[in-house]
Amino acid sequence: MKKYLWGLFLTLLMICFTSCSHPYQNLSKDSSAPKQLSTKEKIDDFNYMYNILKENYPYFEVNKRQNKVDWLNKKNDYISMIKTTKNDKEFLNTLHNILKELNNGHTDIMPEKFYSPFASLYTERTDLNKAWLDELNKPKSLERYSANNDNINKKTNPNIYKKPTANNFRTEILEKDKVAYLYIKSFNYYNIDSDGKMIYKFLQKIKDYKVLIIDIRNNGGGSDNYWQENIVSPLLNKTVVYNTYLAFRGGKFSENFIENRFNKKYDSLDNISKIKEENLSNTPPELENKFKYYKKDVYIIHPQYPIGFKGKIYLITNKKVFSASEAFSVFAQSTGFATLIGEPTGGDGIGFDPAICSLPNSGYIFRFPLDLGMISDGTCNFEHKTIPDIKCNPKMHVNIRRDEPIKYILNSVH
User: Fold this and answer.
1) Does residue 259 lie within any of the structural domains?
2) What does the alpha-carbon distance between residue 303 and residue 355 come to, in Å, rounded to a whole number?
3) What percent of the chain is modeled with pLDDT above 70?
4) 157: pLDDT confidence band, cut at 50, 70 and 90?
5) Residues 116 and 233 both lie in one domain
């Protein structure tokens, strides 16, 4: 599952784009910014990024299949693009466009506005985040992002980002004593406690209803703890167990990140050749020759203060369901917790925080996933998303009774 700090990253993302329509525009403008890079330095930085991705990034073959983009084979094209850049700002924008061709929502360049608050958040758990902090604290990145250890630890106040999302959920009774509706805008980590108390009261109120509709359309994720604690645990009547898989390319750069998260180096992971013993029916074709290691994760979720709900649960999804909200979709379908209705999700909900990497000359930091996440039958979640059990137009209206998923569910009750 995409973990805690990815949820915080989403919070920063929303704040950044709310306050600034061009998140890269302020880089390299102030008088303390590093001197402009030479063409050779830019190309060397690109080559460094290219090689890191070549050895560690998991979705090159997926990009070929889905988007007809052979990213690794376009190296010379990308170098030609970089040669035309006249300054650092153009170089940054070109790197952004190059990474965009990977077509992965967890792969991008870190905007300047994210640096100090993000570093401060990572320092809260140095035991889990050393690999990330090592990259953030590279001298060139400290210089580039106009930061140093003092202002990471003293001047930046990460508490300004630790705010719940306002009006994060809403409830409605669509048919008295029959159909209840719960919409959740995000799984923001900082909404868990405040939302949880109110959601629990609502669930108690409708515990004898025939149908509960949970709507996560446009929910871009946050924290898995949100949906596990606030939605699943109260609605469960028995413990559920399900599993997912992570596959790793085996590049040297990845190992420290994997060790931080799992307390395991490569030699403690299973060799990819052993994945045959799992009898998975739908693994991606490149798994055995492009990857070296894998890890099986078994999740156990227990009922917690169960309300005794015995009705049917529907989960409405659309293509903007991503990361932690996608993890909820995977769980709901894998365990039979809910019937999914709407359109396929955005995927990429299985795995842990994306790695970050500091470029040696510019100090620009880019981000990318290290793991290829698979559901219990080996299906690549990023590639195939989660396909709803009932497909219909997920368009949202002001009056939700006009929504196709809602109309379908209400008709099925009668």
Assistant:
1) no
2) 33
3) 88
4) low
5) no
**What's the pLDDT tens digit per position in 172-200?**
999 999 999 999 999 999 999 999 999 99
Tokens coding 137: 């604290």
For 286-326, how does the pLDDT look when each residue is reduced to its tens digit (9 = 90+)? 999 999 999 999 999 999 999 999 999 999 999 999 999 99
Tell me how far apart the alpha carbons of residues 231 and 226 are, in angstroms, rounded to a whole number: 8
Measured CA angle at 13 (ends 198, 102), to 5 deg: 120
How far apart CA 317 and CA 398 sit, in angstroms, is: 17
Q: Are 230 and 110 found together in one domain?
A: no
Tokens of 356: 């970050």
Q: Classify each residue of 283-322 as buried b or exposed e, where b means 16 or more C-beta atoms within 10 Å of its C-beta.
A: bbebbeebbbbbbeeebebebeeebebeebbbbbbbebbb
Burial of 151 per CB tally in 10 Å (0-12, 13-18, 19+): middle
Q: Are 94 and 189 in a shared domain?
A: no
Q: Contact 361/95 with Cβ under 8 angstroms?
A: no
> 253 with 56: CB under 8 angstroms?
yes
- For residue range 225-274, what is the model confidence (pLDDT) as tens digits? 999 999 999 999 999 999 999 999 999 999 999 999 999 999 999 999 99
Q: Which of 132, 139, 82, 126 is nearest to 110 (CA)?
A: 132
- With respect to residue 266, please indicate whether it lies within any of the assigned structural domains: no
pLDDT at 20 exceeding the cut of 50: no
Contact between 363 and 49 under an 8 Å Cβ cutoff? The reply is: no
Which residues, other chains included, contact 55 with Cβ-Cβ below 8 Å and sequence gap of 6+? 249, 250, 251, 252, 253
In 312-374, which residue ranges form alpha helices assigned H by DSSP? 324-335
Assess whether 147 and 183 both reside in one domain: no
Residue pointed to by tokens 């009006």 = 167
Q: 153-157, 161-165, 235-239: which has the minimum mean pLDDT? A: 153-157
Q: Parallel, antiparallel, or unpaired for β 371-374 and 169-175? A: unpaired
Residue 124 lies in a domain: yes
Full residue range of the structural domain in which residue 322 is found:
169-242+293-347+385-413
State how many domains the chain has: 2
